[in-house]
């Protein structure tokens, strides 16, 4: 049986944690920043965990990560 290809777009956007969950960057922090408050932009800087419901989809996209 052939090897499964990793989705390269997903591999660049997500990192796996030691517990098996996935870490991702926050959205909405790239442009149109003038109307967003400093507090909002500061909170968007950090990384967050992907929802548990989306983890199986990421496992299929990145079988060897």
Topology of this protein?
Elements: H1 8-13, E1 15-16, E2 22-25, H2 38-45, E3 47-49, H3 55-61
Antiparallel strand pairs: 1-2, 2-3
What characteristics describe this protein?
alpha+beta, elongated, 65 residues
Word description of this protein:
This protein is an alpha+beta fold and 65 residues long. It has three helices and three strands, in the order H-E-E-H-E-H. It has a three-stranded antiparallel sheet with strand order 1-2-3.
Mean pLDDT: 96
Order of helices and strands: HEEHEH
Structural class, by secondary structure, is alpha+beta
- The geometry reads as elongated
**Mind describing the biggest β-sheet?**
3 strands, antiparallel
H/I helix tally: 3
Helix content: 25-40%
Which strand order do you get reading across the main beta sheet?
1-2-3
Separation of the first and last Cα atoms: 19 Å
Beta percentage is 5-15%
Spans of at least 5 consecutive residues with low confidence? none
Radius of gyration over all CA atoms, rounded: 15 Å
Beta strands, count: 3
